[in-house]
Specification:
By secondary structure, this protein is mainly alpha-helical. About 85% of the residues lie in helices and about 0% in strands. The chain starts with 10 loop residues before the first helix and ends in an 11-residue tail after the last helix.
């Protein structure tokens, strides 16, 4: 595999070749959680599935932090790669790893101390508390691997290499499925077996990714001496990473708030929602791949001073995302029972999951517009605009979930909050993205890394 310059060639071909492996990578990454839910629901019990699903919303906090660091590092490295400033590129990578080590220690400590409190906060039923807590404790010990892998993936993407990430994830997620079954079915380890399988597979993937990153960095030549740590670079990375972490964390907190409302409707609704949200998140993250690709595309071209290509990349990303979103929408709306049968048997939980999917899936094309606009905002480091659009969507969804669930719609009212929030958030993000691209076209924004 090699580094790829995203500042040259036909934009639609460049975006497609870069994003297609990313799409596959995200699907395989989601298989970690899908495999956990599948094995828990099929080979342990419905309560085990509910426990894993319940814990999943809290694990998203750790994922949000690692994703924020991923974005901060990726955007900055992509800028310097596009500008061919290799010394600063290496400094950005080393500074990120040092910063991530400190953040990892703090988040792990807080997570281990407050696990029970977080589970109580989201109204976890007493019969699910032990398994939920057990799953979370094991997961938290694997947070260093989670962060290490996400940062490595961000660096690969910044260098235009999406294939290496795909190879690692496809191998580790496939292995995770077999290890889940082995630990649960053969060794009878229950929910703990599901957690340990993810821990081991993610750990191996993270270590291999780091090894390749170090080899790749040595192959990048720079005329000046590389600084291992720089406070100036740290501020630059944090300028992108902190808003991203806050945004991702607030989304996780919002999901936890929604989970607490779901939990108030009992274990059947919890299990149905848990299975449906796994499918939903897998599809969403897959379609969202093109947004991540547009972020790297925009960042490299901004660094290279080729700002006219950013708008072209946005259009290409939107076309490609819609080409995927439309057929997915049709399949999910037409066959939700078939999709959810991998996790659930017929019954109340199945009907809950089907209602959720049929309400949100028709709006996948709407949210696709927001994701591509968000990609441009992140890649050009307009994080304030990015956060405004995201927080509007999130706050509306959480508020509406509480309000609508208390009406005659009950749990169905929670699902209705998704499309309502998406429509407004998309309008805001699209408007802000158009303004940024216009300013770039009119030379009102410097065509180089904004953090310099």
């Amino acid at each position: 595999m090699r580094n790829v310059n995203l500042t040259e060639g036909n934009p639609i071909k460049v975006v497609w070749r870069f994003c297609l492996p990313l799409f596959g990578s995200v699907i395989f990454q989601q298989l970690y959680n899908i495999a956990d839910s599948f094995v828990a629901g099929r080979f342990i019990s419905e309560n085990a599935l509910a426990s894993v699903s319940n814990s999943y919303e809290i694990t998203l906090i750790f994922l949000a932090i690692s994703t924020g660091i991923n974005i901060g590092c990726s955007v900055v490295v992509a800028h310097y790669f596009g500008a061919q400033e290799n010394g600063r590129l290496k400094t950005a990578v080393y500074t990120t790893f040092i910063m991530a080590a400190a953040i990892c220690f703090i988040t792990m400590l807080l997570g281990l101390v407050f696990t029970t409190g977080l589970l109580q906060l989201i109204n976890t039923p007493e019969e699910l508390m032990y398994d939920s807590s057990l799953y979370l404790d094991i997961y938290i010990w694997g947070v260093p691997f989670l962060m290490l892998y996400n940062i490595s993936a961000g660096i690969f993407n910044a260098l235009g290499d999406s294939k290496t990430t795909f190879i690692f994830l496809s191998c580790s997620s496939t292995a995770n499925i077999f290890m889940d079954i082995f630990f649960v079915v053969v060794l009878k380890m229950g929910v703990a077996g599901v957690a340990w399988a993810t821990f081991i597979c993610q750990g191996i993937s993270a270590i291999l990714s780091l090894s390749v990153i170090l080899v790749r960095l040595r192959s990048i030549k720079s005329s000046e001496k590389t600084t291992v740590f720089s406070f100036v670079m740290l501020r630059h990375i944090l300028g992108v990473a902190v808003p991203s972490m806050i945004q991702q964390s607030f989304i996780s907190v919002g999901n936890i708030a929604v989970q607490s409302v779901v939990n108030s409707f009992g274990s059947s609704v919890m299990a149905g929602y848990g299975a449906a949200i796994k499918v939903h998140n897998t599809l969403m993250n897959g379609m969202k791949t093109f947004s991540d690709g547009i972020t790297s595309f925009s960042a490299q071209n901004l660094g290279a001073g080729k700002v006219s290509r950013i708008a072209e990349g946005w259009k290409c990303g939107l076309i490609l995302t819609l080409c995927i979103a439309l057929p997915i929408t049709v399949v999910v709306v037409a066959f939700p029972h078939v999709i959810l049968s991998a996790f659930l048997n017929k019954g109340a939980s199945m009907e809950v999951g089907c209602i959720f999917l049929r309400i949100v899936a028709p709006f996948y094309c709407v949210i696709s517009v927001k994701w591509n606009s968000d990609g441009v905002l992140r890649g050009t480091e307009h994080m304030g605009s990015f956060m405004i659009a995201t927080f509007t969507d999130l706050l509306l969804r959480v508020a509406l979930a509480f309000v609508l669930s208390s009406t005659v719609w009950g749990a169905t009212g929670i699902w209705l909050s998704w499309p309502l929030g998406w429509v407004i958030g998309t309008f805001i993000s699209l408007s802000l993205c158009y303004k940024v691209m216009k300013n770039l076209r009119d030379n009102r924004i410097p065509a180089r890394p904004i953090g310099d």
